[in-house]
Amino acid sequence: MAAWSLAVAACLWIGLCTGIGPLYWAQQGLAQFSWLNAVIMVLAFGVSLGVVVALVRWSRGQRVWPQTWSRARFTRAVGRAALRLVPSRLANSPRFRTAIRRMERWRIVATRHLGYGLVRITDRRWKIGTILCLGWLWVPVTLLSAFGADIRSQIREFSWAYNQWAGMRQPYIGFFSFVPMDIYPTAHYMWPTDPTYLTDQHNIVLTVLYGAVAGVSRFLSGSNDLGIVVLSLGQCLFAAYCCASCADRFLNLPWRREARTVASVEDPRVERFTPRDPMRPERGMRPHGALSAHEHDTMTQTTPAGPVARCVIMLFFLTCPLVLFSTISLTKSPVFAFAFVWWFSLGYELHMTQRPAHGCRGRIRPRTGTVVAMAVSTCVMMISAKYAWYLIVIQVVLLVISDRRRWRTYLVALALPALLIHGAMALLFSSGMVIQGDPIESRGIQLQQIARVAKLNPAGIPDSARELLAPIFNLDQMGDSYFQQDADPVKSSGIQSKKVSYRWRSVSKDDMRDFNRAWWQIVRANPRIATDAFLAKCFGYFDVNDQPYVPMAYYLTNDYVTDWSTWIKYWQPGWRTTVAQRAPAVGAIPVLGWIVHGNFYVILTLLLGAAEVIGRRWRILAWHVPLLLLMGVMITSPANNFERHMLPVAFVFGFVALTYWRESQPRTAPSAKLEA
């Protein structure tokens, strides 16, 4: 009952976000909620719950569709309808019937060879990586790179720091001075006494890497552009490796192949399985003799993926704009997303090796390379996204609880790298070498609630709250700069000519202690407006009809690419504009455009997770909890329906669906049925 309650709650949340979407598109609020919104909400809830029920019934071997909707009946009906279009004299002709039978045989043969060929060209990691590199080649060749304001700020920070190291005197703290730390402002009380210009605003490791490469580029070519192109090419190769490694693990289960080989060498008698069809490895293995229920359960869940799954997953990575544009977009989110894809597949291997392998006694031990790769991917995630620290800590706790026997593996592969990276960052902050990110960045929901009240009902702000917020924010400026899609204007993020609502120059640490108390007083006095601010900032992540506030195509043709770059803007400008316009145009197509939007995959992943909860698949859920945590990150992020925040979930959705299919295979064990 509790599991179904969680599933219903998830469906209600999706229904609510879908129902209120039209209100916030029209810059309205819950006060304008009408019967039309209620109808949309009920329909979205019904569809979501219907999907969950269908998934659960299918996983239990129960009928999902009525008998009259069976595929066989549908095929026969289509065949009869097609025959009615053919003249009766021709339909009764022996030659016509012979031609139909021959075409059917050709279709079967062609399908079989096509499926076999698709399996063969994707049965190794290097093959998948080669396909991805060739399929993505046009992106770095014709578009070169994609970036926004972040990399410009990172290059500026590193340049100022380098000038300081070289002995050049520069302004630091002063009311009229404006330094890189004031663009995405970090409160001055957080600055050390000795001047430093490096911050953790955009992750210090990436800042140093991007800034150093751009510095070398200026030395060699006189501009940042060469370094930016090199960085984009390197990110594209990293993406190809991560995606190929992930696809290989989910599609081919390479540890299973290696374990069976080792077992047969040690003891030929334990090799109990042979391929059902050597020409079609996706059909799995045939056992010699009777199988126990556990052995059959293991066999049905460890069969390499078939041609359909391989085709769908490869097409997604080769054609989806989310993937294509992310390969060259120099922002922190794509780096984290591709590292997460790699990390997620390593977790799947550790999950699958909890069970006995085919022809092997006991459990398969994790491959040494897998443990090392997980440690490396954890480090990449940690240096590219600050919230990765919380994700890793929670994940370690869950895994130690769910798989206590391998607690050492999880400590070495997850906890140790996370502690080392986090400890190194803390040391840099405490020593004053790097300025820590301002905690105001994580208060997007609270800032939007205060700003919306200041805009719509300034008289409703209690006097005590005004007094507490006066040293921190200018409430009049907060109200003027409020934008329901994005909290950055309220935080005074951006260029120098901006509205200063956040008093980052003069606010103190003691002043910030009163922030939560003032916020709660405002929310308590204005509950409806505060609720509007919260929903308007995050509903788009769970409303499939909502267009992205900032799509990945933005990074192709924004002002930083077309104006700030030196020669990148002259490389195929017409083609770049065409590509940047075509992707949003495809996404704007009703229903069909959903497949290129990140929120479509977020919603489906949430529904799959609800079905897994109902099915009590706790072990695999332990590895899928990070997906739920990433949805929490989306809700608390500064902007609504910001597509780059949804990349990790979108990239691994196909593999989550494949896992659900494997976990839902029939669990009966009679050997005679298997042989048949």
From TrEMBL:
Transmembrane stretches, start-end: 35-56, 128-151, 308-328, 371-401, 407-429, 620-639, 645-661
Keyword match Mitochondrion: no
Keywords for the protein's UniProt record, in alphabetical order: Membrane, Transmembrane, Transmembrane helix
Coiled coil: none
Matching InterPro entries: DUF6020
Superkingdom to which the source organism belongs: Bacteria
Name of the protein in question: Membrane protein
Organism of origin: Bifidobacterium mongoliense DSM 21395
